[in-house]
What we know:
The chain has 501 residues and is an alpha+beta fold. The chain is built from 14 helices and 17 strands. The chain has a seven-stranded mixed β-sheet with strand order 4-8-9-13-12-11-10, with helices on both faces. The chain has a four-stranded antiparallel β-sheet with strand order 15-16-14-17, with helices on one face. It starts with 35 loop residues before the first helix and ends with a strand.
Amino acid sequence: xxxxxxxxxxxxxxxxxxxxxxxxxxxxxxxxxxxxxxxxxxxxxxxxxxxxxxxxxxxxxxxxxxxxxxxxxxxxxxxxxxxxxxxxxxxxxxxxxxxxxxxxxxxxxxxxxxxxxxxxxxxxxxxxxxxxxxxxxxxxxxxxxxxxxxxxxxxxxxxxxxxxxxxxxxxxxxxxxxxxxxxxxxxxxxxxxxxxxxxxxxxxxxxxxxxxxxxxxxxxxxxxxxxxxxxxxxxxxxxxxxxxxxxxxxxxxxxxxxxxxxxxxxxxxxxxxxxxxxxxxxxxxxxxxxxxxxxxxxxxxxxxxxxxxxxxxxxxxxxxxxxxxxxxxxxxxxxxxxxxxxxxxxxxxxxxxxxxxxxxxxxxxxxxxxxxxxxxxxxxxxxxxxxxxxxxxxxxxxxxxxxxxxxxxxxxxxxxxxxxxxxxxxxxxxxxxxxxxxxxxxxxxxxxxxxxxxxxxxxxxxxxxxxxxxxxxxxxxxxxxxxxxxxxxxxxxxxxxxxxx
Length: 501
């Protein structure tokens, strides 16, 4: 401040009144040193991160103020034709005490891992502007130059010696020490690497998005939990003021960034952590106030394959994504057919499928709605898959590996066309089939869905394939006919189906 009003924020930002304009004739030069802690707090409080604060909050040389002032005055005189009109006034009421540190040769050799000759140590320290105050056979006392704000103790001096001496000049020891560690089962890192390698081999690229995101992504949105947003007390900017609750917005941002650079065909996956705050717990208890969740997401957009002359372009769709999602589940030892399937209530999905086990959510897959894609300025369909990685890993604990010989007897395949109500799902028919025949029936597949007014109002046709095999004997026509008749009766009774001839 001057005698009547504020002029600037010290060490951070200049003021209008004290700035230079086209009409400025007289210039008063001030060269000052500012306390790093005070500058850091001031910069953080006002949200001002400037070149000045960047330098002062990391520590500057307190003895260079006069030299810097003279240099600035000479430059103004030489370049702008200025005239130096006064002497230098140095206001330095309490001088900084000389910083000293003791260093022993024994500790130097111990930390470096090699015996370095004393003349070499002395030469290195003198070349770095350290002043030797006293010296003995065991060590020396040094004065640290004020511009070396990063040196404060003996370990810092050893680092300076080793930096100049050369890390490559320190030989590896002859003895190798190792420790045995216990890895918690299931091994999360092994599972992660297994899935990442598998997806990379299938044309996917792993992405890593920032955990700091705009809070606007999760505010006023029923798909997320606005009251559980983890907000930063001191954000770098409004675009980085919260911790993410989902990997979805980050993935869509990456897709938009690539689309804007003419990269439209993408297969991406990401392992990441999501963060939540419990609004019912006091912030004074950070351990129980916050929680983390590991997630795994898949993103597919654009065409399935690059355009070639001998095949037609085929865009990625929900079923293409679902095949990869279920491939991941199977690789983790989770049978997708053993899960309970449903639909998601998330509004960012236009169509979706969820997987649950024992009442716990496991995964979801679907197409992102056009309204949500519009928020990220994406103009093509995006397929999105999500796995609760914590739930998936917890299910690995109960997995066992079973071995059995190859089947000795051939399998038999039969097809069946069923006329059912329009709201009947294939998954329900599949459950009916396996509950009816639990031993001989091996596989059930859907190879055609037909809807037409000729079938009747509110009706559609499912064409199912059944694979039958008995591991004890060869199936004959009588056995096959009996099983198929049992299946037909079960479909008619439980699903109200009619066999189409």
